[in-house]
Amino acid sequence: MSTVVSDHTSVAENGAPGSPPRAGQPIPPPDMGRSVRVVGPVTPVDPQQLPHPRNERGELGKALYKYWHNTVSTDPLTRISAPNHYADPGNCVNFSVQRSRLGNVNPERTLVADPAAMTRHIKRVARYLGADIVAVAPSNPVYLYDGRYVQDGQTDDAFEQDSTTALARRFPYLIFVSVAWDYKTLQAHRHHIGDASYHFAAMKNARILKTIEGYIKDLGYSALRGTANGQATAIAAGVGELGRNGLVISEKFGARIHAQDPIMTDLPLVADKPVEFGVTDFCSTCRKCAVTCPTNSIPFGDKVVHNGIEKYKINWETCYRLRPFVVEHWDSCLTCVTVCPFTKENRWWRTLAVTTLRTTPIRLRQLAVRPLLWLDNHVWGEIPRKRVRWLGYDTGIKPGEKACTISGCAASHDDGSKGSFVPLGDIGYYAPLKENTNRFVKRTPG
Amino acid sequence: MRLGPLNVSWPRTAARESDPYWDDFINRPAADPANMVTTVIRGIQEGSVFQTRADIHTPEVMSEQIKDLGLYVGAAAVGIVALDGHASEQPFAVISLVRAEYDPRVHPGVGGKAAEAEGLYVSFILASYIRELGFHATSRTWEETPTSDVEHMAVAAGLGALDSAGRLRTRRWGTRIYATNAVLTDLPLKPDGSYPRE
Predict the structure, then answer these.
(1) What is the pLDDT of residue A429?
(2) How many CB pairs under 8 A join A and B?
(3) N or C: which end of chain A has fewer CB within 10 A?
């Protein structure tokens, strides 16, 4: 393979779609589709003001600080998969992978004569490594942090003093990669089983992103981490649209994807475009996530403008503050992900429903939305209450109680819980936790 | 591609021929080994055994749970052997096989080593989980247990057989399978077979 330094100029002169802005020209305004619109000046977010960093510094109160720094999970699976709840970080592979700095950029650059071919190659690489979603967004200051932030990890590079505009020019592409969470275990929202669905997908995603980061460096190009907001990148790259629950609703997997920190690069690529398949129209009517959120953090009303961006805005703080109260029983709520009608198994009927929504003209969308929502409520229920058994865990057992419901297990289980079967009435929605969360006043939809 | 219960292999030849970078991705070694995730995972210092032993189930149930967890995190098949003739603190070996489009032993590129990275990842998670249950387990076995030995363990566990060329062949995946390393443990398990260990 030739090792000639690639020439961006030829791409810019061609004016090919998705090519970076020419030197001296302003960066085009961001295109994020229908679900998110930039309507005013956007101030780059200081990542040190994000919830996790603020909590690390103790700015969110004692309960959350202890949750972050001093909580060792009682569940062995959570201890190997969830950040900050391990007993020994050496048993949490993600702890080391996310913090690894990898090697240097290869001084011998691989020639990229056709950015479209390289884009297809990178996407093929990501899928080969196990990714379910891979897309490319054009860099834009609106998507970038004013600093660096990798959740549960760390990063450093030589460009940390660059402005977001300078960074977007120097590294014109953002590669978004995601792994879908396992659907069956996700049905156990507010349970260790649901936590496993969430955390193990995050671990796999982190490993894939690290592999691609190392590969891009080996191709002779930079691969920066911690520069961009994952959700903004995903929306700009056409992965999905922003839902009422504040999450990226992907076309294939609904809300059950992570928006982990993308790879920012100068590898010549061709950017994808935002996608539109009816999330805004569905969310304007549905409100399932808002009704079922245990902390009432999801808005029932319309989109608002925040920091120059028009979108549905959740109350992150009330969502976040639930964690210390439930960490003994589970780690991640996930209710808004699980109840979302877009979050289904990837079957033909789901594809048919989404295709119907996407192909219906926007002014007629409610004619499709309302029957689909009715179907969702009557087939899956207004809140999933499916009993899930996995790896010895059972959502039919109330948190705080112990029982072994594994058929054929003859172990003595010293605490005497063997054989104590529990009633099925409280599956998936635990009475003790309803008492804990009643302090967050629920409003009925207006 | 899935058609209901069928898993149909989609022709890959056309895609490979139109990708001029694929061959290097599979076969060209990384200029800086530190850019390989395999280097990162091999360099992780394993954690300690959790001080409180979990209330575990019978060996039969624990064996199924370990296998289920291995499959959940990416293994194609998981088997367990008892290590005979070895008065060791770790009498069982858990062998995870991962799908391998390319054999990492002969394809040194980032893509060629992908199966090795995945295998290391799977075995690390299984060993970590067992340690968090309060039992000893290690996945850092690649020095004393080379891949060829792990393949023999896989045969002993009933995961496949060795073909005339000495490669591990499974019923479902053929030779497109890779056994990175074994997890040695003292968690009471029900083995699928036994393997003589010196």
Answers:
(1) 47
(2) 154
(3) C
From CA A18, how far away is CA A115, in angstroms rounded?
10
Report whether pLDDT(A328) > 90.
Answer: no
Of A130, A182, A214, the CB nearest to B30: A214
H-assigned helices in B18-58: 22-27, 37-42
Token pair of B120, please?
């290391």
**Cα distance between residue B44 and residue B135, in whole Å:** 19
Task: Give one DSSP letter per residue of A339-356, joined into a string.
Answer: H-TT---S-HHHHHHHHH
Residue A355: which residues within 8 A CB-CB, separation 6 or more? Answer: none
pLDDT digits (tens, 9 = 90+) for A172-196: 999 999 999 999 999 998 899 999 9
Dist CA B123 CA B75 (whole Å): 9
Locate A118 and state its tokens. Answer: 């390289």
- Partners of B41 on chain A (C-beta within 8 Å) are 93, 96-97
Residues of A in contact with B132 (CB under 8 A): 76-77, 79-80, 87, 91
The beta strands (E) that lie in chain B are given as 2-3, 6-7, 77-84, 92-99, 137-138, 161-162, 168-169, 177-185, 193-196
Q: In 3D, which of A180, A174, A171, A203 has the Cα closest to residue A77?
A: A203
Min Cα distance A276 → chain B (Å) is 25
Q: Is A2 helix (H, G, I), strand (E, B) or coil?
A: coil
Q: Which of A266, A182, A308, A209 lies closest to A6 in space, CA to CA? A: A266
Q: Which residues contact A217 (CB under 8 A, 6 or more apart)?
A: A102, A103, A104, A105, A106, A223, B32, B35
Structure tokens at A168: 């977007």
Beta-carbon separation of B46 and A90 below 8 A: yes
Q: Cβ B110–A214 below 8 Å, yes or no?
A: yes
Mutation site for B-interface testing, chosen from A3, A78, A88 by largest number of B Cβ within 10 Å = A88
Nearest to B72 among A1, A200, A211 (CB): A200
CB contact set of A14 (below 8 Å; sequence gap of 6+)? none
CB–CB of B132 and A91 under 8 A?
A: yes
DSSP code, position A152: T
Nearest alpha-carbon partner for A232 in A433, A429, A31: A31
Structure confidence by residue, pLDDT tens digits, A8-62 = 333 333 344 456 776 677 888 899 999 999 999 999 999 999 999 999 999 999 9
